[in-house]
Design goal:
The protein is α/β, with parallel strands linked by helices. The chain contains 7 helices and 6 strands; from the N terminus they run αβαβαβαβαβααβ.
Length: about 220
């Protein structure tokens, strides 16, 4: 199991952390690691009452987290969906879900989180993927959303620098998550990154003090 470097325990102890997508895959691994480091966690999953792909839902989800934690120091948005196939034949509902979960949720959550992160001089960590660098056949919409996340992160890192809010993005290569397993059930999972490896790298970035970074996580 990958571990966070020495010093992270003191950084994370007592911090108020919201993880959207925190009940599965990489988000759940981040939650587990943070709990061991003494952070206070609010994990938002698909079964949550508030739909974070809408502006009102994102605001409500953040308000609930703030109420339970007393504020927010760090927000991780790990939620994502992966639908593959040629765009001309892709179901409209799958396209809408990809745009909503992979992009709109991050936009609305970032906007809703701004006043809380400004109070705490906190951090926002978004998730892109190795697909962001080049649109690939059968991944058109997915790749487009992941490229957009990088642009969103870069813009917000500049916009929010005066408020001392750090904004970064994590770009894992293929990782062994439920999303990946559902999309590629016959794939050799032993050659993939583990969710724990991605979680450890993510926490190192979030604790680093850096902003405006895209962290490539590779085996």
């Amino acid at each position: 199991k990958a571990t966070t470097p020495e010093g992270d325990s003191s950084h994370w102890s007592g911090r108020r952390v919201v993880i959207v997508g925190g009940t599965s895959g990489i988000g759940a691994a981040i939650a587990t690691e943070l709990a061991a480091l003494g952070a206070r966690i609010a994990a938002v999953g698909r079964s949550a009452a508030d739909d974070v792909t809408s502006a009102s839902g994102a605001e409500a989800a953040l308000a609930t987290a703030v109420s339970s934690l007393g504020g927010v120091d760090d927000l991780f948005v790990t939620a994502g969906v992966l639908h593959t196939g040629p765009l001309a034949h892709q179901d409209a509902a799958d396209i809408a879900e990809t745009l909503a979960v992979n992009l709109a949720a991050s936009v609305y959550l970032a906007r809703a989180a701004h006043p809380h992160l400004a109070k705490s001089a906190g951090s926002l960590t978004l998730f892109t993927s190795s697909s962001f660098t080049k649109g690939r056949p059968n991944y058109a919409v997915y790749s487009a959303t992941k490229a957009a996340i990088v642009n969103l992160m870069q813009a917000l890192a500049d916009e929010w620098s005066s408020a001392n809010i750090r904004v970064n993005a994590v770009a894992p290569e293929r990782a062994n998550t439920p999303m990946r397993q559902a999309a590629f059930p016959n794939e050799d999972h032993t050659v993939l990154l583990s969710a724990e490896e991605v979680a450890a790298a993510t926490l190192r970035l979030a604790a680093s003090g850096l902003t405006g970074q895209v962290l490539d996580v590779r085996r």
